[in-house]
């Protein structure tokens, strides 16, 4: 069903996209910041650390960790913003391609086309995030006296999973709205603002919060992220919930695309 040539072409398109260059630049800058990270030990105990020229002694270690978290969240926000912009147009551009009708006369089903484009996008982003996570682990290995610190890889995989959830919903929106700006705007609102709205609505006891669950509950990933950073076991129920949204919205997307009038 999934056509490798279409997957390969989609990956090429992703890597050639201007926003992908910006995504790569963000990662490179983050790498450079990680290179400035330094830890001093006495035995197995951290007695001081420094980052970007800022030093934290043994009484300020917690403050140092908070600074690292703040920098990480800043770069992650920029990364996700650019990623949403990049991925918002992939299916809108496919629908607006004047040769789409001719292309579908070939032995390629609509389901195969959609899943192939979908797979190409997520493979491209998976490779980028996995390489980033491994790169940070290697840098920290040499910076922390040979300590293997796998948290960056776990975080990279979580970011990828969250992206797949959001991207799947954006594919669904693309087939309905056929407008990349609208899809990007909704994606940004869901990722950055919807969680805060839900929190306030639930505090006020309003039932309107329940209506927001037609959107993927992206905001729930913050708890998973904190658990990973703190070295705690994550809640598998949230991962299963995200998988449910992926299955539902990719299924709806296939149904809509197969029924769509394409000349």
Strand count, sense and barrel status of the largest sheet are: 3 strands, antiparallel
- Cα(first) to Cα(last) distance is 22 Å
User: From the alpha-carbon coordinates, what is the Rg to the nearest angstrom?
Assistant: 21 Å
In spatial order, strands of the major sheet run 1-2-3
Mean pLDDT: 85
Summed up, the helix count is 11
Structural class: mainly alpha
Total DSSP E strands: 3
Unreliable stretches, pLDDT < 50, 5 or more residues? none
Classify the beta-strand content into a percent band: 5-15%
Shape: elongated
What's this model, at a glance?
With 263 residues, the chain is mostly helical. It has 11 helices and 3 strands; from the N terminus they run ααβββααααααααα.
What does the model show?
- The protein is built from eleven helices and three strands.
- It has a domain at 4-12 and 88-259.
- The mean pLDDT is 85.
- The protein is mainly alpha-helical and 263 residues long.
- A three-stranded antiparallel beta sheet has the order 1-2-3.
- 73% of the residues lie in helices and 6% in strands.
- It has helices at 4-16, 18-35, 61-87, 90-96, 100-103, 110-143, 151-177, 180-204, 208-211, 221-229, 236-259; strands at residues 38-42, 45-51, 54-57.
């Amino acid at each position: 069903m999934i056509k490798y040539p279409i997957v390969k072409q989609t990956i090429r398109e992703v890597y050639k996209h201007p926003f992908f260059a910006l995504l790569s630049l963000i990662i490179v800058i983050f790498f450079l910041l990680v290179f400035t990270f330094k830890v001093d030990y006495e035995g197995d105990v951290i007695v001081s650390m420094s980052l970007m020229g800022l030093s934290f002694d043994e009484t300020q270690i917690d403050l140092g960790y908070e600074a690292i978290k703040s920098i990480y969240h800043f770069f992650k926000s920029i990364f996700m913003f650019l990623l949403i912009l990049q991925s918002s147009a992939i299916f809108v551009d496919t629908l607006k391609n004047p040769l789409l009708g001719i292309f579908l006369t070939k032995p390629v089903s609509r389901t195969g086309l959609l899943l192939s484009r979908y797979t190409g996008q997520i493979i491209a982003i998976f490779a980028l995030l996995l390489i980033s996570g491994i790169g940070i682990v290697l840098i920290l290995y040499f910076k922390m006296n040979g300590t293997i610190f796998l948290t960056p890889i776990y975080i990279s995989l979580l970011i990828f999973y969250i992206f797949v959830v959001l991207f799947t919903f954006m594919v669904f929106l693309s087939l309905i709205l056929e407008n990349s700006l609208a899809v990007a705007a909704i994606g940004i609102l869901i990722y950055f603002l919807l969680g805060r709205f839900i929190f306030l609505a639930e505090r006020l006891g309003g039932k309107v919060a329940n209506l927001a669950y037609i959107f993927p509950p992206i905001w729930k990933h913050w708890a998973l992220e904190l658990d990973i950073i703190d070295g705690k076991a994550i809640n598998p129920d949230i991962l299963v919930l995200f998988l449910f949204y992926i299955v539902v919205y990719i299924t709806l997307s296939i149904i809509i695309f197969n029924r769509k009038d394409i000349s």
